[in-house]
């Protein structure tokens, strides 16, 4: 299916510039190991073993956010998965970066600093414009080839993703290849029975947008997480508001409340909302409340409740295909993992076709002792995966296909 070149087409012993997606959760300043490292390690190891000089680019967070940090910790985590040293230089394309790149020997690996620390990276512009930036024009001449392995960032028209492939012979890495083939096949697939999509997580804007386009394909949407609460708010309940210094609901409400209202109006019979929610009580225990009994906007809800989990479990077990995007609660805290894990367990125990997407959400699988083998495909992509569900193309892939 792929129409791009892959590592099978790359001659050995080259100077290769590789784009990975190592964007990870950061807790108290500590980068959390996750499936992205393990998956990309395969591509990196293969390149090093083929005798290439391997220079890696990746991003972490966005300027202004708490998780916008250096990639120094990422180099150490990646090294533990590749089983080889991964050098790090705190520079993107300046003198220090170029010197480190030029001093690499065959089979050695170097990670450059967070691409989003470079001004040319982020503004979304045409690939041709990105190719002309100082970042791309300075770095590209030091390489023979460019490899894009960052399928999960391929919906972004950023310099490191779309500029370099116009300046260098470009190839897809192993993660790009696998994710592209698995996720692109979904849009054209037909199912005899019920198709269900579990929608949660914190990036409500991304998922609500996509729900609008998937109404014809998906029979039933099971909502939780931040998106779920915004739908409850639209249905007239006192949930889905920022309380204290929270910054999850009100902006996303502004951006999406009209779409939510029209989705509820036109597709209300396809949408299941939580009937109960869980929160942390004064003794730090999990407590639950029926949505109909909520009468104050003063509490943060961290999971869907037990009755909701039971009804979602039944829907999943009756489905022919289940797609998951985003967690139903703050599953990293075991007290609030019931919704996310309940749905994942139901999928794992049935033989439906399933795809679990999201860099964060897919972590719940190993955290709670489930096996990746019990799912059709576990994608490390979030935004790119849900765009693929709708059949939309990804700019980072399109540019590779031009080569
Ligand atoms: N009620 C809630 N309150 C706070 N956090 C929540 C709640 N429900 C879900 N989450 C969080 O949502 C996160 C997962 O969703 P998110 O939208 O960030 O990413 P994703 O779908 O995994 O993927 P990607 O970041 O790759 O797009 C989890 O880390 C979980 O803790
Ligand atoms: O984590 C992701 O989903 C990708 O790395 C894209 O990150 P972004 O949403 O910050 O562009």
TrEMBL record:
HAMAP family named among the record's database cross-references: Phosphoglyc_kinase
GO term, biological process aspect, one: glycolytic process
Keywords, in A-Z order: ATP-binding, Cytoplasm, Glycolysis, Kinase, Nucleotide-binding, Transferase
PANTHER family cross-referenced by the UniProt entry: PHOSPHOGLYCERATE KINASE, PHOSPHOGLYCERATE KINASE 1, CHLOROPLASTIC-RELATED
Family to which the UniProt record says this protein belongs: Belongs to the phosphoglycerate kinase family.
GO cellular component entries: cytosol
Complexes and interactors: Monomer.
Name under which the protein is recorded: Phosphoglycerate kinase
Cross-referenced Gene3D superfamilies: Phosphoglycerate kinase, N-terminal domain
PROSITE patterns assigned: PGLYCERATE_KINASE
Enzyme Commission number, as recorded: 2.7.2.3
Cited InterPro entries: Phosphoglycerate_kinase, Phosphoglycerate_kinase_CS, Phosphoglycerate_kinase_N, Phosphoglycerate_kinase_sf
Taxonomic path: Archaea, Methanobacteriati, Methanobacteriota, Stenosarchaea group, Halobacteria
Pathway listed: Carbohydrate degradation; glycolysis; pyruvate from D-glyceraldehyde 3-phosphate: step 2/5
Binding site for substrate: 21-23, 36, 59-62, 116, 156
Location of this chain's protein in the cell: Cytoplasm
């Amino acid at each position: 299916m792929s129409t791009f070149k892959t590592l099978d087409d790359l001659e050995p012993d080259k100077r290769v510039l590789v784009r990975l997606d190592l964007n990870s959760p950061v807790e108290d300043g500590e980068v959390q190991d996750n499936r992205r490292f393990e998956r990309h390690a395969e591509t990196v190891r293969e390149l090093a073993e083929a005798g290439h000089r391997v220079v890696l680019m990746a991003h972490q967070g966005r300027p202004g956010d708490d998780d916008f940090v250096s990639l120094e910790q990422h180099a150490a985590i990646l090294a533990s998965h590749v089983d080889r040293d991964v050098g790090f230089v705190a520079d993107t394309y300046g003198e220090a970066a170029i010197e480190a790149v030029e001093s690499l020997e065959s089979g050695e690996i170097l990670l450059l600093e967070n691409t989003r620390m470079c001004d040319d990276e982020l503004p979304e512009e045409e690939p041709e414009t990105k190719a002309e930036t100082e970042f791309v024009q300075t770095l590209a001449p030091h390489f023979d080839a460019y490899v894009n392995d960052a399928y999960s960032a391929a919906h972004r028209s950023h310099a490191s993703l779309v500029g370099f492939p116009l300046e260098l012979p470009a190839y897809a890495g192993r993660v790009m290849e696998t994710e592209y083939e698995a996720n692109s096949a979904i849009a054209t697939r037909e199912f005899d029975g019920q198709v269900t999509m579990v929608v949660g997580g914190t990036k409500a804007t991304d998922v609500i947008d996509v729900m609008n386009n998937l109404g014809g394909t998906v029979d039933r949407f099971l909502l939780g997480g931040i998106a779920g609460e915004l739908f409850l708010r639209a249905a007239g309940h006192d949930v889905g508001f920022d309380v204290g210094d929270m910054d999850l609901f009100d902006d996303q409400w502004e951006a999406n409340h009209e779409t939510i209202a029209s989705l509820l109006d036109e597709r209300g019979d396809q949408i299941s909302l939580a009937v109960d929610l869980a929160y942390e009580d004064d003794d730090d225990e999990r407590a639950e409340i029926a949505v109909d009994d909520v009468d104050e906007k003063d509490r943060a809800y961290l999971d869907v409740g037990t009755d909701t989990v039971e009804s979602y479990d039944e829907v999943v077990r009756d489905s022919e295909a289940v797609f998951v995007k985003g967690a139903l609660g703050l599953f990293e805290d075991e007290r609030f993992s019931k919704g996310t894990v309940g749905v994942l367990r139901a999928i794992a125990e049935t033989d439906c076709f399933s795809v679990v997407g999201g860099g964060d959400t897919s972590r719940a699988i190993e955290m709670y002792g489930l096996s990746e083998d019990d799912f059709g495909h576990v994608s490390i992509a979030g935004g790119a995966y849900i765009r693929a569900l709708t059949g939309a193309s990804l700019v980072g892939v399109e540019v590779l296909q031009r080569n």
